[in-house]
């Protein structure tokens, strides 16, 4: 009995140790962004000070610099604009395609679905060189429209895959009943299937939006001027002047950008994972 | 009956497939065509040069170094991620107080934009103000002025980029494994325990075999995400010092985009393809097996 209790206590101590160590390791950079954001410059660059605490009064100076003297808000605006356009394009392409794969293409649906999913594996670092040429031919260099055109290439495949699973889970009888009542198949899709799939569609919206904010390679390749940049490239590249890093403002920008995205993503996480597990979990 | 299902299906599917062909298919083929030609950023026209780009790439010491670095980077990251995420997933499997908060914290590296997480690490690994060095000095483990240059010495720089890439991928791998673990019916490990199987025995003979398919999925995605990523390397080291952390994607970027040699850049990125094909094939096998089962 005693041995059992000892083992239980040991197990629970180990459990908490693992949880705490990993949480600290993984979340530490964000704590570090937070403390750097509000630290006075002198405090930040004094090696004698304990870096984990505020040795001087917290300051809003870095935030003031970020919002007043840099293009940070412009980059956020650019990102929101591109994000919304990409969401619209993704929905227009992926929702009908997913429905077709789930219901209308029969035996071929599953295979085409896997085929489209596999295109998600083709990385930007393979495509960016030819795409930079194509973007130049279209006259879209240094234009946000280049990103609007290219970004759906990584949101459409995954979204189609996610929605296909979602549509399959809707009972066929619902549409059959609606069609008996006089709706066409397409009418049933628009008036019945789409409205009851709001949560699946919302998942795709959030997924698309977060992927747009996380993208780095295409924005770095296609956009050259500072004012047209996306937040993911603008902050790490253009907030650095020559060799001078404004760490306070830099970390503030990282923190302010990351937290809302993290909160949003967290809510929808389980659905994304269901997409990634490719049916290896039932 | 206005339109047959099959026709309507084709019409609804067509826009997506045309778009994917135009924006993924066409550049994919173009990458091969470029790699066999002499396209520069400012040039017009195209001359077929056969395998010349590949020959010159293979002779370049920088390229060979990058290929080697890519492999070290990918394998190193996968080892750290798999060991770490397995331990973490097992610890998070059962409900406990505060699990929601813990989940939020451990997911941060994955959900925050990569480039911003990486720049955060650049500050943590700073040559002068590194907080890690401050702690090491405070603990008298290293002397001031002799503290490690995390991003400035070849071996340490490679360790650092592997560490940051692992930091980023660990949450992803953990949630995938968690999905697998929670899908195991609870009564199976319990029955094993009743039959006298201990923790390790249950682990190796029941839990691990049962989550093997999902383990494969985590590894396959992890390999692709690491092997084709240039963001972490670009932000932390730009491939330095002396190209000792240069990976294939970042070298393709420096050669093809910044250097303007589209042909050679394309030839470098083509070296990503064999691995992509292998992963796609294995992924199909996983999908197929679960379909049959």
Q: How is this structure best summarized?
A:
The complex is a heterodimer of chains A (282) and B (293). Chain A has 282 residues and is mainly α.
Which short descriptors sum up this protein?
heterodimer, A: 282 residues, mainly alpha, MetI-like fold, 2 domains, two-stranded antiparallel ribbon, B: 293 residues, 13 helices, globular
Strand content of chain B: under 5%
CATH-derived topology of the largest domain in chain A: MetI-like fold
Mean pLDDT of chain B: 88
Total of domains of chain B: 1
Largest interface: A-B, 95 and 99 residues
- CATH class of the largest domain in chain A equals Mainly Alpha
Secondary structural class of chain B? mainly alpha
Write the layout of secondary structure elements.
The complex is a heterodimer of chains A (282) and B (293).
Chain A: H1 2-37, H2 41-44, H3 61-69, H4 72-104, H5 107-118, H6 124-137, H7 144-150, H8 152-168, H9 172-180, H10 185-196, H11 198-214, H12 217-222, H13 231-238, E1 240-241, E2 244-245, H14 247-276
Antiparallel strand pairs in A: 1-2
Helix pairs in contact in A: 1-14, 3-14, 4-5, 4-7, 4-8, 4-11, 4-13, 5-8, 8-11, 8-14, 9-10, 11-14
Chain B: H1 5-35, H2 52-59, H3 61-92, H4 99-111, H5 114-124, H6 131-138, H7 154-182, H8 187-194, H9 199-227, H10 231-236, H11 248-258, H12 262-270, H13 273-292
């Amino acid at each position: 009995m005693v041995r059992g209790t000892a083992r239980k206590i040991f197990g629970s101590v180990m459990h908490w140790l693992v949880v705490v160590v990993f949480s600290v390791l993984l979340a530490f950079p964000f704590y570090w962004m937070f403390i750097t954001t509000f630290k006075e410059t002198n405090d930040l660059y004094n090696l004698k000070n304990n870096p984990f605490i505020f040795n001087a009064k917290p300051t809003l100076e870095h935030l003031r610099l970020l919002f007043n003297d840099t293009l940070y808000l412009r980059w956020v605006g650019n990102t929101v604009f591109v994000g919304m356009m990409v969401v619209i394009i993704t929905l227009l392409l992926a929702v009908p395609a997913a429905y077709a794969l789930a219901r209308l293409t029969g035996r071929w649906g599953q295979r085409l679905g896997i085929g489209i999913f596999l295109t998600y594996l083709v990385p930007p670092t393979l495509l960016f060189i030819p795409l930079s040429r194509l973007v130049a031919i279209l006259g879209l260099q240094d234009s946000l429209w280049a990103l609007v055109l290219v970004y759906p290439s990584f949101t459409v495949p995954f979204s189609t895959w996610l929605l296909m699973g979602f549509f399959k889970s809707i009972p066929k009888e619902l549409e059959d009943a609606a069609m008996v009542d006089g709706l066409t198949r397409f009418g049933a899709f628009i008036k019945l299937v789409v409205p009851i799939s709001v949560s699946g569609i919302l998942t795709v919206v959030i997924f698309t939006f977060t992927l747009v904010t996380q993208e780095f390679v295409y924005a770095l390749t296609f956009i050259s001027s500072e004012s047209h940049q996306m937040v993911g490239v603008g902050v790490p590249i253009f907030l650095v002047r020559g060799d001078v890093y404004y760490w306070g403002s830099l970390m503030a920008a990282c923190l302010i950008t990351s937290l809302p995205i993290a909160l949003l993503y967290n809510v929808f996480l389980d659905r994304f994972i269901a997409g990634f597990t490719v049916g290896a979990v039932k | 009956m206005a339109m047959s299902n099959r026709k309507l299906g084709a019409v609804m599917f067509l826009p997506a497939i045309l778009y994917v062909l135009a924006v993924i298919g066409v550049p994919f083929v173009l990458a091969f065509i470029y790699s066999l030609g002499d396209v520069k950023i400012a040039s017009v026209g195209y001359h077929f040069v056969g395998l010349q780009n590949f020959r010159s790439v293979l002779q370049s010491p920088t390229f060979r170094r990058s290929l080697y670095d890519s492999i070290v980077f990918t394998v190193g990251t996968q080892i750290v991620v798999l060991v770490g995420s397995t331990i973490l997933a097992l610890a998070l499997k059962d409900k406990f107080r505060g699990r929601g908060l813990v989940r939020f914290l451990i997911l941060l590296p994955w959900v925050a934009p990569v480039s911003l997480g990486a720049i955060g690490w650049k500050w943590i690994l700073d040559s002068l103000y590194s907080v890690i060095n401050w702690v090491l000095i405070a603990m008298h483990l290293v002397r001031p002025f002799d503290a490690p240059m995390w991003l400035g010495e070849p071996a340490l720089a490679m360790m650092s980029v592997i560490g940051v890439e692992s930091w980023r991928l660990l949450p992803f791998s953990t949630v995938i494994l968690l999905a697998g673990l929670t899908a195991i019916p609870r009564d199976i490990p319990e029955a094993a325990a009743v039959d006298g199987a201990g923790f390790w025995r249950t682990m190796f003979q029941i839990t691990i075999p049962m989550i093997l398919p999902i383990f494969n999925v985590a590894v396959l995605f992890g390999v692709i995400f690491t092997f084709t990523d240039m963001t972490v390397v670009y932000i932390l080291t730009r491939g330095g010092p002396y190209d000792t952390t240069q990976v294939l994607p970042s070298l393709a970027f420096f050669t093809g985009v910044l250097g303007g040699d589209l042909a050679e850049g394309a030839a470098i990125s083509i070296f990503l393809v064999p691995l992509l094909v292998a992963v796609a094939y294995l992924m199909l096998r996983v999908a197929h097996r679960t379909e049959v089962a």
